Amino acid sequence: MDTLLRPWTPADAPVILAAAGEEMMARQFTAPIDSLSAAEDWIALLTARRDDDAAYSFAVLHEGVPVGNVAVSSVERRHLTGWISYWMREEARGQGLATKACVAVSEFAFSELGLFRLELAHRVDNPASCRVATGAGFAVEGVERARLLYDGVRYDTETHARLATD
């Protein structure tokens, strides 16, 4: 993998803590990140998931500094599928980094993990995420009505997929 992506390290905990403090970012983490130790725990969880062949998360780098995350998770060996997710810190959005990271992690999933089908979804009210998905070669497959629930409000999601043969 090129210098755009690298696995998260414990030294990245301050970046994770800062990212978790940005508006709307708390939803990107499996538990609240409100301290350096919580950020370190999150990174340790990513390492454990990689060791279990369940998920592979990478820091997205800009000029050598982590500014986002991209992952292939829900790695399923029987059907050779995985789930792509991504987020970028506010200062790194709109620069094409998320799209490049999605392309890179997809190539990793196809070539290194041997997966065939990758899926992702985004809220329909998030056109920037849709641009990332389509820009990275993920075809629109449909809308899942009222898929997500945040703060008592249901949101539709649009599902995309990319195949190794695309």
UniProtKB/TrEMBL annotation:
Q: Which PROSITE patterns match?
A: GNAT
Q: Which domain of life is it from?
A: Bacteria
| InterPro entries tied to this protein | Acyl_CoA_acyltransferase, GNAT_dom, Ribosomal_N-acetyltransferase
* CDD domains per UniProt: NAT_SF (cd04301)
Task: Give the matching SUPFAM superfamilies.
Answer: Acyl-CoA N-acyltransferases (Nat) (SSF55729)
Q: Where is the N-acetyltransferase domain?
A: 3-156
Name the Pfam families for this protein.
Answer: Acetyltransf_3 (PF13302)
Q: Protein name, please? A: N-acetyltransferase domain-containing protein
Q: Which organism is it from?
A: Lentzea pudingi
